[in-house]
Amino acid sequence: MSDIEIARAAKKKPIFEIGESLKIPAADLLPFGHDKAKVSQAFINSVQDRPNGKLILVTAINPTPAGEGKTTTTVGLGDGLNRIGKKAMICIREASLGPNFGMKGGAAGGGYAQIVPMEDMNLHFTGDFHAITSAHSLLSAMIDNHIYWGNEQDIDLRRVVWRRVVDMNDRALRQITASLGGVANGFPREAGFDITVASEVMAILCLAKDLADLQKRLGDMIVAYRRDRSPVFCRDIKADGAMTVLLKDAMQPNLVQTLENNPAFVHGGPFANIAHGCNSVIATTTALKLADYVVTEAGFGADLGAEKFMNIKCRKAGLAPSAVVLVATVRAMKMNGGVAKNDLNEENVAAVKAGCPNLGRHIENLKSFGVPVVVAINHFVKDTDAEVKAVQDYCAEMGTEAIVSKHWADGSAGSENLAKRVAEIADAELADFSPIYPDEMPLADKVQTICKQIYRADEAVMDKKILDQLKDWESQGYGHLPVCMAKTQYSFSTDPNLRGAPTGHVVPVREVRISAGAGFIVVVCGEIMTMPGLPRTPAAETIRINDKGKIEGLF
After folding, report:
1. Distance between alpha carbon 436 and the CA centroid of its chain, in Å?
2. Residue 64: per-residue pLDDT
3. How many whole angstroms separate alpha carbon 278 and alpha carbon 202?
4. How high is the pLDDT of residue 324?
5. How far apart are CA 464 and CA 213, in angstroms?
6. Residue-by-residue DSSP string for 233-284
């Protein structure tokens, strides 16, 4: 059966029963239908004195067209932990409409390791993304309105840095000219759109601890510069209060369930390139008060998602993972070893071995954060014993276990061995977590540290203009911020076609941006799109409602 057919056949429990399993009173759940609900801030506040459970991060090798199954493994591991008698929760991001209708598909897992309701999660869900889009758009409108009615803040029209957003892949909106049509429509200027998940509002919602923190962070966003080059903040436009009102419900985590009726928070969804690519801090920290083990994931491969999880999310939220699960597939190893996608079903042990250095690089990098690492081999039917053994032998040489997990086909029964080992490692308290650079390190040195230690580049190349900008931000009091690297997810380098574990490359820094509200500096390397386009044959062409009123084509 397809993912959507499996999800549709699920025997879901009423969401109040899922809440009851976590001892969340019915009065503290705001239901959206029968199978999803938001958790009240009052309840979240009431559990803050409880001890934290163990935090387990699921990450992956660099993405390939062969597929890795990171979210599927996250869900499968959470189900597996519950199967062996542990009290576990899952925390993942919400899905963006753009990739759903484009090429990537949804973000609810797959096979028999899914979070449901799958259709709702991959479409409008509880309206969080619409609220973020609306709050972002309100600020956009208020900036142009401020300029129209006299420009009291003396905004330089050439230096409005706040772009618009829409939750759809629409390349035609990347660069536009706004306010055409005469005096009544304002002052014409260049503008553009990003996808909603790239909005700083999204990043802020996922890092804020409560509504007061949310409003402060929104107010701290830099939206433009004056003619004297001084920054104009969102609070100068007086938009932060109304934006917070639009986001008050979106701040509350969404409670849903897996196919096996285990609880999951699905909340937030920042881009893993231009932002930190993790679910919300409020969802993760709340889950840690409700469960003994919390399984969460970070976007893209470990060089982007896990690095940002460690250096940004954990730093900002005071979190420390007890273990990391690194997802790999035999198929992806073969692709990294030079095998074409059409030939992946043929046994090729030599190619598996040739592709393993990509896995090895991620293992080394993750261990540098002081956290124990387990490799999960996400099993495909065509994987042979010899190919699996090649991966396991390689990992053993790296001092790491590699455990086959068949959660996609068998649900928690297939992830039981992985769950047992992860729980043992988490309980052993082997982790000695720390980010790889201190707050007080200069911004340019933070960039060099990531490029050299994580990407194994010879250096990051930054021209004088970029270095001067970083120094200016340091003089303005932003030097303590972490850096958020925006580069291709497909390679350790900035060349998406350079697979494996390349060395001897450089990382060209094209520009730097400040997300003062979210609290990080964005470092744009190579060609990065903050507004994706649709592929030649988008998934939207085959998504429809059938004659029984059911949705088809989502995946």
Report:
1. 20
2. 87
3. 11
4. 98
5. 35
6. EHHHHT-HHHHHHHHTTTTSPEEEEETT--EEEE-----TTTS--B--HHHH
- Distance from C-alpha of 453 to C-alpha of 458, rounded to nearest angstrom: 10
Q: Is 125 exposed, middle or buried (0-12, 13-18, 19+ CB in 10 A)?
A: buried
Q: Does domain 3-126+250-427 have CATH number 3.40.50.300?
A: yes
Residue 180, φ and ψ in degrees, nearest 5: -75, 160
Rounded Cα gap, residues 81 and 179, in angstroms? 55
* Sequence ranges of the chain with CATH classification 3.10.410.10: 443-525
- Residue intervals in the chain for CATH 3.30.1510.10: 128-247
Residue ranges, CATH 3.40.50.300, the chain: 3-126+250-427
User: What are the C-alpha distances in Å from 304 to residues 129, 185, 365, 453?
Assistant: 23, 41, 11, 13
Enumerate the active-site residues.
70, 72, 93, 104, 272, 300, 380, 408
- Measured between its terminal Cα atoms, the distance across the chain in Å is 12
CATH fold for the domain made of 443-525: Formyltetrahydrofolate synthetase; domain 3 (3.10.410)
Neighbours of 81 (CB within 10 A): 31
Report, as ranges of residue numbers, the positions in the chain whose pLDDT lies below 50: none
Per the omega criterion (within 30 degrees of 0), is the bond before 372 cis?
A: no
Measured CA to CA, the distance from residue 426 to residue 57 in angstroms comes to: 11
Q: Is the sign of the CA dihedral 111, 117, 122, 123 positive or negative? A: positive
Range 128-247: architecture per CATH: 2-Layer Sandwich (3.30)
- Is 71:107 a contact under the CB 8 Å cutoff? yes
pTM of the model: 0.94
Helix (H) or strand (E) holding 391: helix 385-397
**Residue 529 has what pLDDT?**
83
Rounded distance between C-alpha atoms, residue 260 and residue 114, angstroms:
9
